[in-house]
């Protein structure tokens, strides 16, 4: 799929819905997937609707070189080159799958069509259901059709509002690979609303953390997830997601070596070749710290690190520590007693022992 | 005596034109009622529903005053060179449109409300303008409502009597519709002719409603997700 020359996205929106107030001022990257992450009621869907123009807020919306909204202009939704995937697939019940995916495609000028029907059909694996009506499809199939339908408008930006949350586990697993591919293949920015840490870890490059109608933080996924001043750190599965690449297969032990910026780590063989890009997820509770490199341990992944910051955890007996391995940050959860005994403080050199790594892509 | 078809054709013509006019006027009105948040929405809805509860003679009486030579609308139609509407087919048509309006507007409004906001939002994100969305998404999804509206509007106009007597009178070929013809036959004790027409109307009404329920039942089943 061809690249659009897209600059950044600027979203300034202020609106009140009853007692709830959304007030955001965001500058988002012009490519990659930005997750709007937060609990329900945090305003992430409203923010997405404001960007689309489905909800009219005060403010300013710039996408690349286009102005969609400012003080004296409001471009109607149907004139904005965007695609929107709703939580429920919302296919038109009176049309076949083919008519559904052709609906938007037919409404854009031929020379603006960057994605062809055959391509989208093949890509989302919906070829054998084209003549069916939506009521004959499973939830996962419907959502795939909705994604194809949205992409066939050759949008400048793709907005997705919890596209997996209405699906059962199997349908989620069925769609996730398509979303991961989408992420690699699309040159346009994707704004993705979710409350699932799992989807965040799989898909996001950039994270906007929403709470009570405000954006608490906005930044690259890895850095933002390891900030100790945000509530996201105290979640049970706090940790870090690192982009990495398989550099060596150790077939004898069914392991692979994965390099990330500033370090490398051994992980279970996912059956992928050398050179494959993957994501590593390391939970804070799976790392321990030592002052000396431990020998005689079962743990394989032991690497030098520097303490950056110490912070409180949800339980007073625990602490969270951000360390840096090379240039990559990691979070460590340990007891307050250990932190005091080891005299941990910012700048101190330590050894990080990683008990478990998950490959998620 | 050969069967007098004139009232039959006149009735079909009146009901057909009334239905057509009502679909043209009633569709935007019903759409507005289904979507607006205006404070006076309920007042407009109540005005539309008035013929459901008022005696037809009341409607006919006021239309007669309004359209008559001294009424404001009557003076307008005279100034425009259209003459006076009462006791003409045109006057009957105007009266029928008012009289049958709730039977067309209410099913349409219900159908539009049932379509909901989501399909409209989806269509907008797929580059469809509001008008395009209306014809490509709303109308097909509201098809059972259109069918119900058309059938009820037609059948109700066929069945009107009081309004016709007040504003149309009994002019053969002009305003003498079936219901009036039946009344005439009964007045002159010609029960045979009254029976013929009445049985025809009963059969017609039954078949129309049967077809409506059957078709709508099928449409609703096939549209259910």
Protein model, in words:
The complex is a heterodimer of chains A (361) and B (225). Chain A has 361 residues and is an alpha+beta fold. In chain A, 20% of the residues lie in helices and 37% in strands. Chain A has two domains: 9-225, 3-Layer(aba) Sandwich (Rossmann fold); 239-359, RNA polymerase II/Efflux pump adaptor protein, barrel-sandwich hybrid domain (OB fold (Dihydrolipoamide Acetyltransferase, E2P)). Chain A has helices at 44-52, 97-105, 117-123, 139-151, 169-185, 197-203, 221-225, 336-341, and strands at 9-17, 20-28, 33-37, 58-63, 66-70, 73-74, 82-85, 157-161, 190-194, 206-211, 214-220, 239-250, 255-260, 263-268, 277-283, 287-290, 301-312, 318-325, 328-335, 349-354, 358-359. Chain A has a six-stranded mixed sheet, sandwiched between helices. In chain A, strands 2-1-4-5-6 form a five-stranded antiparallel sheet, with helices on one face. In chain A, helix 2 packs parallel to helix 4. The longest helix of chain A has 17 residues, at 169-185. The longest helix of chain B has 33 residues, at 191-223. Chain B is an all-alpha fold. In chain B, helix 6 packs across helix 7 (130-141). The A-B interface holds A 52, 54, 76-79, 82-84, 86, 88, 90, 92-94, 103-104, 107-108, 134-135, 149-150, 153 and B 118-119, 121-130, 132-133, 136-137, 140-141, 143, 223-225.
């Amino acid at each position: 799929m061809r690249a659009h020359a897209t600059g950044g996205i600027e979203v300034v929106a202020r609106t009140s819905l009853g007692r709830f107030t959304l007030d955001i001022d965001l500058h988002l990257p012009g490519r990659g997937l930005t997750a709007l992450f937060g609990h329900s009621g945090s305003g992430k869907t409203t923010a997405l609707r404001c960007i689309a123009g489905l909800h009219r807020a005060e403010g300013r919306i710039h996408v690349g070189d286009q102005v969609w909204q400012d003080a004296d202009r409001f471009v109607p939704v149907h004139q904005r080159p965007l695609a929107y995937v709703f939580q429920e697939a919302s296919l038109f019940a009176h049309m076949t799958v083919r008519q559904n995916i052709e609906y938007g495609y037919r409404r854009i000028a031929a020379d603006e069509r960057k994605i062809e029907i055959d391509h989208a059909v093949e890509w989302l694996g919906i070829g054998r259901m084209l003549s069916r009506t939506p009521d004959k499809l499973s939830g996962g199939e419907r959502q795939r059709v909705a994604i194809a339908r949205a992409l066939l408008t050759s949008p400048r930006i793709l907005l997705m509002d919890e596209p997996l949350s209405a699906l059962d586990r199997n349908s989620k697993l069925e769609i996730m690979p398509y979303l991961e591919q989408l992420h690699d293949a699309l040159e346009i920015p994707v704004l993705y609303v979710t409350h699932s840490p799992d989807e965040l870890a799989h898909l996001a490059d950039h994270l906007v953390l929403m709470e009570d109608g405000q954006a608490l933080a906005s930044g690259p996924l890895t850095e933002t997830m390891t900030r100790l001043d945000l509530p996201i750190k105290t979640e049970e599965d706090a940790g870090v997601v690192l982009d990495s690449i398989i550099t060596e297969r150790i077939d004898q032990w069914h392991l692979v070596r994965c390099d990330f910026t500033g370090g490398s780590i051994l992980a279970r063989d996912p059956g992928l070749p050398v050179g494959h890009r993957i994501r590593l997820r390391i939970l804070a509770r799976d790392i321990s710290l030592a002052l000396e490199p431990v020998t005689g341990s079962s743990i394989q992944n032991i690497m030098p690190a520097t303490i950056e910051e110490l912070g409180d955890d949800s339980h007073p007996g625990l602490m969270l520590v951000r360390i840096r391995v090379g240039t990559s940050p990691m979070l460590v959860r340990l007891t307050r007693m250990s932190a005091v005994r080891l005299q941990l403080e910012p700048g101190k050199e330590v050894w990080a022992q990683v008990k478990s790594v998950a490959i998620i892509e | 005596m050969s069967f007098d078809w004139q009232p039959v054709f006149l009735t079909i013509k009146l009901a057909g034109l009334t239905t057509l006019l009502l679909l043209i006027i009633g569709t935007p009105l019903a759409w507005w009622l289904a979507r607006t948040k205006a404070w006076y929405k309920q007042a407009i809805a109540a005005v539309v529903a008035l013929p459901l509860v008022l005696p037809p003679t009341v409607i006919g009486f006021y239309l007669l005053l309004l359209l008559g030579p001294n009424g404001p609308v009557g003076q307008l139609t005279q100034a425009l060179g259209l003459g006076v509407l009462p006791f003409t087919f045109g006057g009957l048509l105007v009266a029928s449109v008012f009289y049958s309006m709730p039977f067309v507007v209410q099913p349409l409004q219900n159908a539009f409300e049932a379509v909901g906001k989501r399909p409209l939002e989806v269509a907008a994100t797929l580059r469809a303008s509001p008008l395009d969305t209306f014809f490509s998404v709303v109308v097909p999804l509201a098809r059972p409502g259109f069918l119900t509206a058309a059938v009820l509007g037609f059948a109700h106009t066929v069945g009107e009597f009081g309004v016709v007597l007040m504003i149309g009178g009994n002019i053969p070929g002009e305003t003498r519709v079936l219901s009036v013809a039946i009344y005439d036959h009964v007045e002159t004790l010609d029960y045979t002719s009254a029976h013929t027409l009445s049985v025809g109307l009963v059969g017609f009404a039954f078949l129309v409603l049967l077809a409506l329920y059957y078709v709508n039942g099928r449409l609703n089943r096939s549209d259910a997700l």
